[in-house]
Amino acid sequence: MQQPELEQVKVTGGFWKEKLDVIADVTVETVLENLEKAGTVDNFARAGLPGQKDKAQTLPWNDGLLFESIRGAADFLRVRPNKEIEARIDRYVDVIYQACLRSETGYLSTWMMMDFPGLYFDESGDARQYHDAYNFGCMTEAAVHYYKATGKTKLLFVATRFAEFIAGNYGYGQKADGSKKINMVPSHEGPEEMLLKLYILYRDNPELKAEIQRYNPDYPLSIDENEYAELVKFWIENRGNYENRVGGANYGVYAQDHALYYDQTVAAGHAVRANLFYTGMAAAGREFQNHTYLATADHLWNNIVNKQMYITGGVGAVGMDEAYGDNYHLPNDGYCETCAQVAMGFFSAYLSLSFGDAKYADVVENYIYNGVLGGMGLDGDSFYYQQPLSAKEGRWDWINYTPCCPPMFLKFYSEMPAYIYSYTDEAIYVNQFVSSELTLPDGRKLTMESGMPFGGDSVITAGKDTELHIRIPDWVGAGKETIRVGDRAAAYQMEKGYAVLAVKAGDEVTVSFPMEPRRIYNDEQVAFTQGMVALGYGPLVYCFEGVDNPTIPGFGTGEFCMGVAPDAALTARFEAGLLGGVTTLSAEARYYDYNGKLQTVQAKAIPFYARMNRGVSSSYVFVGEEPKAAAGRPKSWLAQATSSRNNGNSPAAAFDGDPETYWAAGSQETPQILMVDLGGVQDVGRVKLTFTSGQAWKYQVLYSEDAKEWELFADRSKNAESRQEFEETGRARGRYVALKCTESAGVGYISVAEMAVYADGSQTNLAQNKLCGATSYSNPVDSPFAMLDGNETTRYCPPGEEKPQTVTMDMGGAADITGMRILFEKPTDWTYTIEISEDGQNWSAYQSETYHMNQDKIWREIDKAARGRYIRFSITGTTGGVWASAWEFDVKTAAEPESIFAGLLDSETPGPGSAAVPGDMDGSGEVTIQDVMEACKVLARQSAGKVPTQEELLRGDLDGDKLFTISDVMEICKILARKA
């Protein structure tokens, strides 16, 4: 069976036309730009220069990432010419070519040349770090693909010169000097399949081989492509053979070097390396008709798919070594590196061509829609390195991350159109349902219009007589498809998962699959999902995301935060305005509120690929069929930690100086209040608010010296302007500053990325990392509020072992304390102190001890009377390197103090009211020359685009037009004149 060339398939519309446009127009540019910024191209400019002593600017594998990106970009160029991208790649190739000419042998891997000059491959001494063979493979692949896209041969010369060096010195046979070639197999696999492409190119185009041999007379080449084929075979066949191995290396199971290839029956080791090795084995088995290669690859594929793959296609569950684990070891927070999933897609595509069984194309489809697509944000320039089923981390924008997944992502989707169809001399196979046109060299043509993934109908029109093999996806269910030719039911037979029927030129074949929500259950041998269910729709796997389910308390705490019962009705609805247009699923879910009462809600699920596109929000693929009871009601306290590993969506996230984290209210009820304690009475001149999106946010900003009597600083309760950032200015003195959100601005929840408080004219944020709190919060994660949320499955956790770590808490009012109880994280010796204060300034000791905790989930109960409002809890020591973390902290009181938020929640809008003296801008109680000056400052700020605060308008709008103008300043001057 053959795969069509990219030029023979055109994606014509629908879901995939839109996605591929974003990838081609945005992602390609993003990936190349970031690799260039990182210094990847500059490494080539410096490598091999006489006297060069600088180290490489990037990591050992960045050469390969650049070449992978060129390969992906080249495939897009084949069907989407882009002069700017082509010119950019030409510029890179010029630099790479010059580096090649500086290499005596043709070897070209910049990190090794600059950090370990003169050493090749494992002679570096670090088998996990060296990537020069991997970089070489990526170079050959890029050269082949770029030649096919542009006809340009400069990079092909560079790659061939490198290939001649490797093939002449490593593998089977003898070197030119008669000595035995060295046993070198790539530690990071991939070159097996990549070098095979160079062999095929020269085998099928002997005139091109002659052209490259003559490319640069100063560097003559004697190309024998059969040596490349033999080297590919050597790399496959000598895993587990350490005789005469370069550097005496034995990579072990980590790099699939623990056994000869045909003795490997269970996928193991680093999942990316493994899947690239298996891909190379499948490609070589197909090319050389080596049935041992193919049988081994197929056995490993079945092991992965049946015992080591998540329902999204995720593979490599173990974070340590980014590796495969034991069979059925599939925890919901498993590692699932995107690169491993891309490689598994390539692997499956080769087996599909070799065996013609629909099960391989089923897996390719899973990656197309779930396991790979989920690795990129809808914007095309944000990504996921890992894709666990249960996600709490947001997408990253490349900075400070290994950027290996975006180039792999490019390779997969630039080639994806070629996966839609395959063919033989007699038949055309429809493997994927994508609106497209196929034109084969023999004149056979198909067109397809498909509603996938949200619509189940596809119409296929034949341009010539042929035999069609139409894949019936596994998710459809046996016999549930409908196939018609014109207006009559089609006669067809099922073969290897394909519906087989003969069609005539002009025949219109309509294939219909039932599109309805479905429940997905894991194999019962997967212990992590017992009692759990996932949802699917068509080829898509779904997940529940916190942003869509804000009313469920503690949504971020775990998959059993709610339960979707086996008999709960499932409803599908297409929402054109959501996430680029998606079908959402809803189901009645049950959850326990913080009072332990069972509640119901219509829970909403979105496609797995679309998660984390509306800010950071926990998401789960599997959820319980029965919810777990909440431990208790969260405490409406202010809190502050010396440090925390993650602020989640807690109030602290709005005061941590990081705009990527945010507070999210845990309820859609309004009003919601976010409050900070500045630690003492301060002059406040400016409050800056950064919400998580541009909406018509409606709110008030208030301040108080004692958290009892509140005054208005700014009022946007009737705001109609959609913005993400707001800046309020005024004059106030207060210790507490509160944001009171009066409506949810139409997005269903309230969330604030940052709330900053400044004195007039200062750039120092008085609110950063101060005591803070909120009326509700959706996901405390590892913040101090995780100790106060009434949930024993969330914890406060600092970012490391360093101690002491302290959490300071404000109960909101002084109370008679009768005792305390603490649930530390795990069994160890906990050395800690507790102090109490009524004013937050003068502290007295309450408890100081080393507590021996001998088993999990045992509370430390303290019965001791005291009086106070503030509590300071410090963990000063543990044994065994345990971090200073705790699940819960409770205080028992004779009477619960009134919540610090109660007054603001229950009262009408507080403010200066009629007591304000007209014209008194500085609040002194009378009109003076200082007020005229202050009025002029308001005008000056207004001319710079600043909006006067409500208090400034109240005091200074003397002509009643609800604006602040020069006429108001004149009226203040008149008051002052009358006084004189």
Number of strands: 33
What is the structural class?
Answer: alpha+beta
Rg over CA atoms, rounded to whole Å, is 33 Å
Low-confidence stretches: 910-915
The portion of residues forming beta strands comes to: 15-25%
The largest β sheet comes out as: 8 strands, antiparallel
**First-to-last CA distance:** 100 Å
Helix count from the secondary structure assignment: 19
Please characterize this protein's 3D structure.
The chain has 980 residues and is an alpha+beta fold. Helix content is 27%, strand content 24%. Strands 13, 14, 15, 16, 17, 18, 19 and 20 form an 8-stranded antiparallel sheet that branches. A 7-stranded antiparallel sheet has the order 1-4-5-6-12-8-9. Strand 30 (829-837) and strand 31 form a beta hairpin.
Describe this protein with a few key phrases.
980 residues, alpha+beta, eight-stranded antiparallel beta sheet, 19 helices, seven-stranded antiparallel beta sheet
Helix and strand topology:
Layout: E1 9-11, H1 14-37, H2 40-46, H3 62-79, H4 83-102, H5 110-115, H6 132-150, H7 154-169, H8 191-204, H9 206-213, H10 225-237, H11 271-288, H12 291-308, H13 338-355, H14 358-371, H15 405-415, E2 421-423, E3 427-430, E4 436-439, E5 445-450, E6 457-462, E7 466-471, E8 482-485, E9 488-489, E10 493-495, E11 498-503, E12 508-512, E13 518-520, E14 532-537, E15 540-545, E16 570-575, E17 582-592, E18 598-607, E19 619-620, E20 623-624, E21 638-641, E22 663-664, E23 672-695, E24 698-704, E25 711-716, E26 723-743, E27 751-758, E28 772-774, E29 805-824, E30 829-837, E31 844-852, E32 860-877, E33 886-893, H16 902-906, H17 929-943, H18 950-956, H19 966-979
Parallel strand pairs: 3-7
Antiparallel strand pairs: 1-4, 2-3, 4-5, 5-6, 6-12, 7-11, 8-9, 8-12, 10-11, 13-14, 14-15, 14-20, 15-18, 15-19, 16-17, 17-18, 21-29, 22-27, 23-26, 23-27, 23-28, 24-25, 24-26, 29-32, 29-33, 30-31, 30-32
Helix pairs in contact: 1-3, 1-15, 2-4, 3-6, 3-15, 4-7, 6-7, 6-8, 8-9, 8-10, 8-11, 11-12, 11-13, 12-13, 13-14, 13-15, 17-19
